[in-house]
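This part of the workshop introduces the protein records we will be handling. Getting from the letters to the tokens is the skill we practise here. The record below serves as our worked example for the rest of this section.

…
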Amino acid sequence: MVNQDVIAVIVAAGRGTRAGAGGPKQYRPLAGRTVLAWTVETFLDHPRIDGVRVVIHRDDREEYETAMADSLRHAKLLPPATGGAERQDSVRLGLESMADKPPAHVLIHDAARPFIDVGTITRVIEALSDHDGAIAALPVHDTIKRAKEGERIETTVSREALWRAQTPQGFRFGEILAAHRAAAGRTLTDDAAVAEAAGLDVALVTGSPDNMKITQAEDFGMAEILLGRKARAMEYRTGHGFDVHAFEDGNAVMLCGVAIPHDRKLKGHSDADAGMHALTDAIFGALGEGDIGDHFPPSDPQWKGAPSRVFLEKARDLVVERKGRIVHCDVTIMCEEPKIGPHRIAMREALAAILKIEPARISVKATTTEELGFTGRREGLAAMATATVALPAEI
């Protein structure tokens, strides 16, 4: 079940006629993937986005499923909603599709902005703590002219206090839904204008120059260049983690977020989840950020009995703060007992939910030590993990 606190609505119902031949621009290829897939992936990977709903044209279901084939089983991707004749109609219908189980907040984003970044999304979400709404935007630096009679200058417009609006545009859900209902039938250029008409307080937060909107055919060339630069600017790091815990009297073993019934439990300062500890250290290692003990000293009583998801969430958040993403995780449990196989799927899903990535990016395996050593004597178990993280290269 999706924790519906912040839901992203991706508006993808337009026809994109200004982008030239080739069909709707959101389904056109961009460096081997569709524009829509690039856009949606960033929201799916963001740890503070709890669900993503794409609003599509009634005739585009097949194109949508093809474009999103790699993400259709992602836990955060909600079934698509059907849009309307205009963008404003599509947004309202997307909001209406969630009215029966409303989230606290919603971010509305154009599918044709595939270069939205984690930092911009985060800034919009954080601004909603103090405002009814918030939009990504950039201050205007160019000199602005007002024209008359087509191409003749009438006057120079002061650029002071002028901003270029982008998306995402975030709002408290109930207020923006009411605003859209009240604005139905009017023609307003973005959701901030709808909010303004309803008297809502909307803040400006800094967007990104890279957050371009693909509108015309020539924009695809610029998008390819930008995407190539971004791809070259990422580096991939791998970290390793290892953890050991002894058994003691109990009734369940906690591993990778799953309680496995057993006649003993693992002994440790926290909940002793060796699998999650090893994976946390692997992510810290990929980041060059030390280990669990550096961030959560066992001498600190506040961590006694703490759930290990707290440690893994910290590692995940550090990746996000560095504008990176977790690409893949591999965990191996070494023990004679309990049996891990029946619980591997649940473990992958539990880790994926914490890391906010697809279960397909996580592997959980188990092996015995052929009754050798402390694990062979059933005195405890060990876990090792590898994590691959993509980070912006320092160039």
The chain has a mean pLDDT of 90.
